[in-house]
Amino acid sequence: MDSYTLHRGTAPLLVSLPHNGSFIPKDIEARMKRPARRSADTDWHVKELYAVAKGLGASILVPVASRYVIDLNRPSDGHALYPGRKETGLVPTIQFDGSDIYRPGAEPDAEEIAERVKQWWKPYHSALFDELRRLRKKHGRAVLWEGHSIRSHVPMLFDGRLPDFNLGTADGASCSSALQERLTTLLGEQNDYSWVANGRFKGGYITRHYGKPEDGIDAVQLELSQINYMDEDSFDYLPKKAARVQVLIEALLKTCLL
């Protein structure tokens, strides 16, 4: 099985969707607790939301495996992204609700984690690196857009309801100040959705690692509250709500190409 799919576009824009995958191999699933097998913390339907990116000529990279198998937005050595805060790791053992993923004694050991990095993490990051390099060579610049989504309420990670649109640029380090200003200006001019820049989510490993504006590669993460386009309990996609969200997503992506 291929570990990802890559649509190669013509514009200097790569949309990466590292938590869209929901596949869990049977040998791993057999060791998981039944509720965890739903892969509830998947960034559900972001591939559908970002279908508008193809019309802009963007490249789109999508993994197959669930983040419960491997979290592609974590460093391969497993170090924390938000030191001092509770978070899930490279190979999570708890869900966002704090419940255990594995049956007692069935958690992956260091050898298994290393194998998952080899099978799932490295191919995705190789594809991401190569595609960014191709776009940078062709256009002289490239924008990496990290498309994410999460439940509107996750007490383990943040208090209250999450803003609708959560822009992350590693506090301005992962993209040019000009791009960040254009994006925040666009968000500030609309009244349909709440938003914040560099709030609870500042950008994960991919945004921080690949964003090098001084070398012509800007990286931006968008963490979208799922209540805006899907049913958070059933995971059902809600096309009418999603269509409204897509209008703003497309406008943000267009801004990246200016």
UniProtKB/TrEMBL annotation:
Classification via InterPro entries? HutG_amidohyd (IPR010247), N-FG_amidohydro (IPR007709)
Q: What is this protein called?
A: N-formylglutamate deformylase
**Which keywords does this Swiss-Prot/TrEMBL entry list?**
Hydrolase
Gene source species: Luteibacter anthropi
> What is the main EC category here?
hydrolase
Q: What is its EC number?
A: 3.5.1.68
* Pfam families, alphabetized: FGase (PF05013)
| GO MF annotation list | N-formylglutamate deformylase activity
